[in-house]
TrEMBL record:
It comes from Serpula lacrymans var. lacrymans (strain S7.9) (Dry rot fungus). GO terms for molecular function: tRNA (cytidine-3-)-methyltransferase activity. It comes from the Eukaryota. Keywords: Methyltransferase, Transferase. The lineage of its organism: Eukaryota, Fungi, Dikarya, Basidiomycota, Agaricomycotina. Belongs to the methyltransferase superfamily. METL family. Residues 1-25 are annotated as: Disordered. GO terms for biological process: methylation. This is Methyltransferase type 12 domain-containing protein. Transmembrane segments: none annotated. Residues 95-200 form the Methyltransferase type domain.
Length: 293
């Protein structure tokens, strides 16, 4: 924790650092620049069609070399340690948006529960192939893992091997941000349907005015706080508020509230480039949501 500003260059990162005093001016300037040159209307439809294609291209290029293993999940969500204990019993854990397995495999390698089943899903078929080609997939040390292609925003069905009300924990890390806000309702309905009563959602995603958002150049803004990256994948930046798309009742779901909020907050971190004397303010959202009985 940064208690003395004069020590800022002594570490590479600081937790829970408030935004700088001039942040409002910096945010206003960045957003004004982006709004002057948004994605042309004619191109928005193209970017919002077949998003899995762009993620396929991403994983064809990067395989499992882009994202680091998410070993921090156990620190942020101690519930994952509890279900991995030897006597935890039969637990089904679903990671949605598994990518190359950067969360699933660290969880599996730390697992001591022979009755833990990890189900990993992604709408990129190439990402799923990367997972299935990992040696730990075919020979997990303890427990089991299954991976398949599935679109979280699908209206067709739940993922392969998952019945309604059969999942204990859903991991949703940097996933909803890749969907169009119009798809969130379907995504939430699917998550609610697959969880057992009392089941848990572990959520982490990009926060509003994160450094990444403010750095977007012209021609990247799809909609408010929603962008297209250079590789044509999409990203939304969240805040602690209810988006208008989720205010109305969701199809195929019982009336609100669907979940009880056990945790919801903003995780701020200051990353420091000591050599170049740069300060980089990162913002993430984190939450835990319990399915109502």
């Amino acid at each position: 924790f940064l208690k003395d500003e004069t020590e800022v260059w002594s570490q590479n990162a600081w937790d829970h650092v408030p935004p700088p005093e001039d942040q409002a001016e910096s945010i206003a300037a960045s957003l004004a620049r982006q709004r002057q040159a948004p994605v042309p209307e004619a191109e928005k439809i193209k970017y919002n069609q077949k998003p899995a294609k762009h993620w396929d291209n991403f994983y064809k290029t990067n395989a499992d070399n882009f994202f680091r293993n998410r070993k921090w999940l156990h620190l942020e969500f101690p519930e994952l340690l509890a279900v991995a204990e030897p006597e935890a019993g039969a637990i089904t854990l679903c990671e949605i948006g598994c990518g190359a397995g950067n969360a699933a495999f660290p969880l599996l390698s730390a697992n001591k529960n022979p009755n833990l089943t990890i189900r990993a899903y992604d709408f990129s078929s190439h990402a799923v192939k990367v997972v299935q080609n990992n040696p730990m997939y075919t020979s997990p040390p303890v427990g089991s893992i299954q991976a398949a292609v599935w679109d979280l925003s699908s209206l067709e069905s739940l993922p392969p091997g998952v019945e309604a009300g059969s999942v204990d924990i859903v991991i949703l890390v940097f996933v909803l941000s890749a969907l169009h806000p119009d798809e969130w309702g379907k995504a939430v309905a699917n998550i609610h349907k697959m969880l057992k009563p009392g089941g848990l959602v572990l959520f982490r995603d990009y926060g509003r005015y994160d450094l990444t958002q403010l750095r977007f150049k012209s021609g990247r803004l799809l909609d408010d706080n929603f962008y297209i990256r250079g590789d044509k994948t999409r990203v939304y930046f969240f805040e602690i508020d209810v988006h208008p798309n989720l205010l109305h009742p969701l199809a195929h779901c019982p009336p609100h509230p669907l979940f009880a909020i056990e945790q919801l907050g903003i995780d701020r971190r200051l990353l420091v480039n000591r050599k170049r004397q740069l300060k980089m303010y990162r913002v993430w959202m984190q939450g835990k949501f319990r399915k109502q009985e």
